[in-house]
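User: Run a structure prediction on this.
Assistant: Running it now.
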Amino acid sequence: VHFPSFDKNNIETKGTIDNAGGLYRYIKYDFFYSDKSKGSVLVLKKENSFLDFLTKWGIIIILIIFLVAITAMLFLNQFLSKTIVKPLENLGRTMSEIREGDLMIETPILPPKTAKEVHELTSNFESMRLALLDSIQEQRNLEKNRKDLIASISHDLKTPITTIIGYVEGLQEGVAETPEKREKYLKTIHSKSLALNSLIEELFLYSKFDAEAIQFYFERIQLTKFLTHIVEEFQLYNQEVQLELNVEEDVYVYIDRMQMNRAIINLIENSMKFKKQTELLYIILEVIVVDDLVEIKVRDNGQGIPESKLPYVFDHFYRGEEARTSTTGGSGLGLAIVKQIVSKHNGHVKIQSKLDYGTTVTIILKKA
């Protein structure tokens, strides 16, 4: 025991001593016996074991904590780098490529353990890329359609105007010497002017449909009465066509009277333009109910359309044969307008045809 030294003036001493490697707190009283010999009273209490532990192992513990912290930081850094940082860097490079205009670059494939938030971000980015790609493609298609439309308009306007100019100049220069020839020139000018006016009207109508500038007013209509009125009115002025109506079941539909009338008349007139020269034209309007759908079929025995050209007949200014322009007077907008009208009714239109055997156009609407 490292006993504290005697202090003759000591009444009470406090401190810490080392006893066989153990720390003790103490209180000591020093005094003299009657024979003047020295005496001391020492009260010991073992020091706290935790403090003892810290005294002996504190530095080692601090070093261990420091090493564990560094190891954990390195592991966390590696984990974050693999699951978040690197995927975000790859995504950033993809964004840079897209900013330069390369929309075809694919979004990088993420490692399996990538953070959920990064997966969601990448998925949203890929959806945005695809939407942007579709938008650009649609814009290109619209631009191509616009250019084709302008080219078609230019061609269709130029043909009758050139004819009119030629015949007017012929009249001015005295080419038509006889009254009969002048009458022929004037009739040609008149017919070409009518064709030009009809083309402009149909073009104006098509552009209004395309710009959604025409208001539709839908009514619940009894289809049989509606079609009967069209057939009766049409045959009053067109005796050269045999027009019939076959109704399987009388139904009601929601339609705009004026616009649906326009669509069906367009189909009938289209059949008349391409009828066979040697046969009487038969046109049959047929109504077929299939579940909750109503099919309005316009069937004729006309020239028919080659199968290879069927996918294009509803495109604007498409005629199938360029030679038909002058012989039929068609603008190439009739079926395109029909498609626009039916689409506004939330329906769709399809066509079946066989060359030399006739054509069937089907308008499909929902039953009211």
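Confidence is low (pLDDT under 50) at residues 321-329.
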